[in-house]
Amino acid sequence: MKTITRLSAAFLTLSSSAAAIGSDAALEAALELITADHVSADIHFIASDALAGRDTPSDGLVVAARFIRSRLQRLGIEPGAEDGYFHRYPLLRLGLDEEHTRLVASAPEAAVELSPGSDYWFRSNYLRGDADFSGGVVFAGSGSTEDLDACEIEDAWALVLDDGHSGSRVRRRVRKAGGAGVVLVPRADFDGEPYAEKYGAGLASFIEGRISYPTERGAASRRMSIFPQLALTQSTGLRLLALASGRPADVPLESWTPTLGADLGLTLSDERRVVHDGESVQMENVCGFLPGNDPELKGEVLIVSAHYDHVGARGGKIWNGADDNGSGTTGLLQVAEALRRYGPMRRSVLLIWVSGEEKGLWGSRAWSDAPWLPEGCRPVANLNIDMIGRNAPDELYITPSAEHAQHNGIVKLAQRLAPLEGFPVLESADDYYHRSDQAMFARLGIPVAFLFAGIHEDYHQPTDTPDKIDYDKLRRVARLVVRLLDALQTDTLDF
To answer: How many other CB atoms are found less than 10 A from the CB of residue 394?
Structure first.
């Protein structure tokens, strides 16, 4: 049976019987079962080279799913999907139509047509179908906050001279300023990874064909999820400047820099075309269900989630994803072990390991698009864990905070319980509210909370390896999740 809940209010409040939680003995027995050694053993497998970074889709991800399923089977946890432990959802295989994908720079007297993969590259992560981006071009210097404040870039491309360290931060600044997109051109003293290496593999894989989440066709809906960033070769950048000024294209870049904020008098049209072969690829979320034992409350389901995918391997290197999100994956396995030791709670619990988070929250989106729970059950809350094994031992974040519109009682409860596990203060993670799977579960109209230990220098790098995990910290976060579930067994959860 498919169930969906649309709860009108956003705030979860605990009843006055908050002290009347589950058996203290059951809780203590469950908490004692979670150990750093157990977490370490699991994460050294999940984040091993053998799983090759758990890309969506990949053989390594398939192995990880079966590892999780076998643990649920060993523990005697019931299947939580309609046809067993795996909630399956389809993906489409898409490819770039090279012949009809191009970048055109136009000036009043002339135009230049550029080709992807040789003259320029673009981030294709979120491209699901045909897309067109167009606007004027403004010189935005280094793309720093100070430089952008001196420019009028609304609805225009911001051309930025890249020292080798521009990228996501510049893109966010330009987007916030209302720009149409970012154009990166290497500075004369550029010392970063060459664009052909940094962006080439991703574009080449898209040309060959890659997997995408099925979406409604229509450029308008697709454009909403894409903020374009172009990376030009230095010679291509000089061709654009020559087109804008009428000067020769062989003038060295260091002696030819426009005035900050200058409108270059160009129109840049980024045209992207996609083809698909109609092939459907089946992906898996892994679901385990622990039925409640209270006749009145067992139909209310608390969802605990973590994504088990990462970004795979490329260029001969493996992105193991020990923290992202091997930590959440194995933390949730420890929660499963603890809940079995605890025994049935009053409310039911769904444990769900979702795939495709790194590609755009695909797994949680697919489940929330068509949620399935046993007959008579409905979801009432979601707690999501992602990247919980790094940074200072007492550093932990949560969203939605008190400053967020979706702030709720789960967050308040977590803040009260966190000091018991060595986290005196839960700082705000509101900047990440839409960047992990709780954002998809929130679409069901239920309160959500996201526990997160913060970004670090190994985020989305091959250096995110098991030896850098703070296993005691991960253990304590898993214990906090169990404490939260225990405390959410009160007579009423008023929405």
So the answer is: 14
Q: How many other CB atoms are found less than 10 A from the CB of residue 438?
A: 29
* pLDDT tens, the chain, 495 aa long: 333 333 333 334 443 333 334 469 999 999 999 999 999 999 999 999 999 999 999 999 999 999 999 999 999 999 999 999 999 999 988 888 989 999 999 998 899 999 999 999 987 766 777 889 999 999 999 999 999 999 999 999 999 999 888 777 899 999 999 999 999 999 988 988 999 988 888 888 788 787 888 864 433 334 346 889 999 998 998 888 888 887 776 777 666 778 999 999 999 999 999 887 666 899 999 999 999 999 999 999 999 999 999 999 988 999 999 999 999 999 999 999 999 999 999 999 999 999 999 999 999 999 999 999 999 999 999 999 999 999 999 999 999 999 999 999 999 999 999 999 999 999 999 999 999 999 999 999 999 999 999 999 999 999 999 999 999 999 999 999 999 999 999 998 865
Q: What's the predicted TM-score (pTM) here?
A: 0.74
What is the CB-side half-sphere exposure of residue 114 using CA atoms within 13 A? Answer: 26
Phi, psi of 340 (to 5 degrees): -65, -40
Under 8 Å CB-to-CB from 57, ≥6 apart: which residues?
91, 211, 281, 283
Which amino acid is it at 143? G
Residues in the chain: 495
Token readout for 387 is 């990247």
Give the chain's domains with CATH numbers. 13-91+282-494 (3.40.630.10), 98-272 (3.50.30.30)
Which residue has 């956003």 as its token pair?
10
294: left (phi over 0), alpha (psi -120 to 50) or beta: beta
Contact 284, 348 (CB under 8 A): no
**DSSP secondary structure code for residue 353 in this structure:** E
Compute how many other C-beta atoms are within 10 angstroms of the C-beta atom of residue 168. Answer: 10
